[in-house]
Design goal:
The complex is a heterodimer. Chain A is mainly α. Chain A has helices spanning 2-39, 43-69, 77-97, 106-125, 130-150, 152-155, 179-202, 204-214, 216-221, 226-252, 262-275, 282-300, 304-318, 322-329, 331-336, 343-371, 392-433, and strands at 161-162, 254-255, 379-382, 385-388. In chain A, the strands form 2 sheets. In chain A, strands 1-2 form a two-stranded antiparallel ribbon. The mean pLDDT of chain A is 85. By secondary structure, chain B is mostly helical. In chain B, helix 1 (2-33) runs antiparallel to helix 10 (238-257) and helix 2 (40-58) crosses helix 8. The termini of chain B are far apart. The chains are: A mainly alpha, B mainly alpha. Chains A and B meet through helix 5, helix 6, helix 11, helix 13 and helix 16 of A and helix 3, helix 4, helix 9, helix 12 and helix 14 of B.
């Protein structure tokens, strides 16, 4: 009797602790969004934060499809682009008609733009799941992107449609001219959308989406129509992608057909998958990572997109859970204090893996410099060591690094797996005791 | 008018057969492994660039044989070391792997050969007009493309229907485990089919390269049309892929040749209306909407028959 009472109290205490932790994470994220621009106040940092906010909403909306409902879309940028166009046209209309709508409400128009397309065509697109859905989304994406070049009066042809965000009615005395104010607008909507999308995953609808992803046949048996569920998920994803597009339109003050295109769809897929689709925060991580790489890597190397592809392939083959999956894998080990059992093997594996990575980088750069036009310098600066792409020993070093690094890495990662199994076994037994 | 019909039919059949060279390999790979190879059009591009490079080194005719073999080898390596590892994570992982590959191959090609078109010419032996029809010289090279694709089509049909290898492949399509129990190495069959499919795509690239533009975005341009073809024909159906290839080849070729628009048929709109969506649609020519016609067909088939023209699979 007494034991049961203490058990209940312990459970209640644990529940309230986890709830505290849960709200703490969200509050910390909100506080970070407010404080970040005060710490890193340079123009470049503000631009980067704004881009990350937009990419984050976009990637999260993509994950409603891929992660939650198991729909792999190759045409998600359609909603993003249409949202951007809706927002730009709305902004121009607000200015020319003199409507009293301030800028912070414009992203909603973008969202409605994305939603409208999703509702109009979603039923058709979500008729089939799996590979067929992937192909259909690709086809529809191409259809919209090509049509946008024909319907010049709406999409402005190659140059796009421009707007002026400062011409809209001001609110709280904010003109939204400075990037800082735009950042806070984006941060607000990013936070609000993230909360809304997280809440969506906790609703019964969100759970049915997961069920449709895992076993559509049984979903049908319990009385849901998977097609309807897919359609609704598609509509939600379309809305939030459109909202992200609206934010992008505000940030860049332009919308053009590149927003709708296949490469934009590819980047959101990269962001969501590299971040990890199985956890809610994965796509956010991915958006941060991909945007950061996009900004920084393009300064360092001319073939930065190739590195994107290589990283993506690496994630698909070796860590399909993405970065978030890798992080969350370690949770039971941290909780039971067995993490120390795997760290030595990690350190041992790090050396050959790093050698392999350097070898791959050196090979790519060597080939790139060797074949590129003569105006580019042939000297590669890798970790402060200059390599001349035209010298044979550079090619030799690259080959040795790749081959030796690969062989050693394969051995050492096998050791990691063994250490991991031991640690996981210990962790399991400790959790059972507790 | 008759001239336009004859020439466009010839061109359309030629483009359609070229599409079939690609879609047949893609369909075989899909029906066997359940993997939609997103990088299939990239193998086609690799074929074109290998063909270009080898033509410069050893001449066109050796390149015609060597380049597809090289592409086939690349394909087999992708299957053996990439897809087989990704297989345990499911079909989405496999599809994403090929998507990443397509992305990487495009970047590698533009890194090595640059982003502008390379000078890949029709070989001198085939650079003459085959016949003159209504004052138009029809190039012999296009006949050559037609002949090669038709030969591959017939060869594929014979191999699949009349040889022991084809029998095993067909059996492995539907009952991979049973074929394995009978002592055949299913993994090797898969790798072989993937290699042959990639080699066919490479061959298409080698022969199409001089006729179309050999450029690093050729995969991105053709890929989506290819996927429309196999969804339209019905995923996993070889006859469906054949019909859809010809149909889309013909439709696109005819559309490009036609210059009519609503404005030319019914007269221009009242200019006082100003520019709007209506005037855009009114003035656009059929040639201008040619690139979107395959996707319109895709939407149409989804409404009428979601599993595709001759498809039987639901997913």
């Amino acid at each position: 009797m007494n034991g049961a009472a203490t058990d209940a109290r312990r459970l209640r205490k644990e529940a309230s602790a986890s709830r505290l932790r849960f709200y703490g994470v969200w509050l910390a994220a909100g506080a970070a969004l407010i404080v970040l621009p005060l710490i890193f106040s340079t123009g470049g940092a503000l631009t980067a934060f704004s881009l990350i906010g937009i990419a984050g909403v976009f990637a999260l909306s993509y994950n409603i499809l891929l992660g939650q409902t198991g729909l792999l879309s190759f045409g998600h940028a359609v909603h993003y682009g249409l949202g951007a166009f809706a927002a730009v046209h709305a902004m121009n209309a607000i200015v020319s008609r003199g409507w009293p709508v301030p800028l912070p409400f414009v992203p909603l128009v973008g969202g409605i733009g994305g939603l409208a397309f999703a509702v109009a065509f979603g039923w058709l697109i979500t008729k089939r799941a799996g590979t067929a859905f992937a192909m259909i989304s690709l086809g529809i994406g191409e259809l919209v992107a090509s049509s946008s070049l024909i319907l010049r009066s709406v999409f402005g042809g190659e140059s796009g449609v421009t707007t002026d965000r400062t011409a809209l009615p001001h609110i709280f005395g904010w003109s939204f001219g400075p990037q800082l104010q735009v950042y806070y607008l984006i941060a607000f909507w990013a936070m609000a959308s993230a909360i809304a999308m997280y809440a969506l995953t906790r609703t019964p609808f969100g759970r049915v989406c997961n069920a449709v992803r895992d076993n559509p046949e049984r979903v049908e048996f319990i009385g849901y129509n998977p097609h309807v569920v897919r359609f609704l998920a598609y509509a939600f994803a379309g809305f939030f992608a459109g909202l992200a597009g609206g934010l992008a339109a505000i940030n860049f003050e332009i919308a053009n057909s590149a927003y709708l295109g296949a490469s934009q769809s590819g980047y959101v897929l990269f962001a969501a998958f590299i971040g990890g689709t199985a956890h809610f925060f994965g796509p956010i991580l991915g958006a941060v990572l991909v945007t950061f790489l996009q900004l920084k890597l393009s300064d360092v190397t001319a073939v930065w997109q190739l590195y994107f592809g290589v990283v993506f392939i690496g994630i698909v083959v070796f860590a399909p859970g993405g970065v978030a999956g890798l992080i969350m894998m370690h949770r039971p080990l941290v909780r039971t204090g067995t993490l120390t059992m795997v760290i030595p093997s990690y350190l041992a594996a790090a050396v050959p893996t790093l050698a392999l990575a350097l070898g791959v980088i050196l090979s790519i750069e060597t080939v790139a410099r060797y074949t590129a036009n003569q105006d580019q310098s042939n000297v590669i600066n890798l970790l402060g060591v200059p390599f001349d792409a035209t010298r044979p020993w550079t090619w030799g070093i690259a080959a040795i690094l790749v081959v030796a690094g690969f062989l050693a890495a394969r051995l050492s990662w096998r050791r990691v797996a063994e250490a991991w199994d031991r640690a996981a076994a210990v962790a399991r037994s400790r959790e059972q005791l507790a | 008018m008759l001239e336009l019909i004859v020439i466009s039919t010839l061109n359309g059949v030629q483009f359609g057969m070229l599409l079939f060279l690609l879609s047949s390999g893609l369909t075989l790979i899909f029906s066997m492994m359940g993997v939609l190879n997103f990088a299939h059009a990239s193998f086609y591009m690799l074929g074109a660039f290998f063909g270009y490079q080898l033509t410069r080194w050893i001449g066109f005719w050796p390149a015609l044989v060597v380049a597809p073999l090289l592409v086939g080898a690349v394909g087999m390596a992708v299957e053996r070391y990439g897809l087989r590892n990704a297989h345990k994570h499911g079909h989405v992982a496999e599809l994403l792997l090929t998507f990443g590959l397509a992305f990487a191959i495009e970047e590698i090609v533009s890194m090595i050969w640059g982003k502008s078109p390379v000078d890949y010419r029709v070989p001198a032996a085939l650079d003459f007009p085959a016949f003159t029809i209504f004052s138009t010289n029809y190039p012999a090279y296009k006949i050559f493309i037609l002949a090669v694709s038709a030969a591959v089509f017939v060869g594929l049909l014979i191999v699949l229907k009349a040889t022991r290898v084809g029998l095993i492949v067909q059996a492995a399509l539907t009952h991979p485990n049973m074929v394995g129990h009978l002592g055949h190495n299913v993994g090797r069959v898969f790798m072989l089919v993937f290699g042959v499919g990639s080699a066919l795509a490479g061959l298409a690239g080698v022969i199409a390269g001089p006729s179309l533009v050999t450029q690093s975005d050729m995969a991105a341009l053709l890929g989506p049309i290819l996927f429309v073809v196999i969804v339209f024909g019905g995923l996993g159906s070889l006859p469906g892929a054949f019909v859809a290839s010809l149909l889309i080849g013909l439709i696109q070729t005819f559309a490009v040749a036609l210059n009519g628009s609503l404005a030319s048929a019914f007269g221009p709109l009242d200019p006082s209306l100003g520019p709007s969506v209506v005037t855009d649609v009114w003035n656009v020519t059929i040639a201008q909407i040619a690139p979107i016609l395959p996707y319109v067909l895709l939407v149409a088939i989804l409404i009428v028959r979601p599993m595709g023209l001759l498809g039987t699979r639901e997913t």
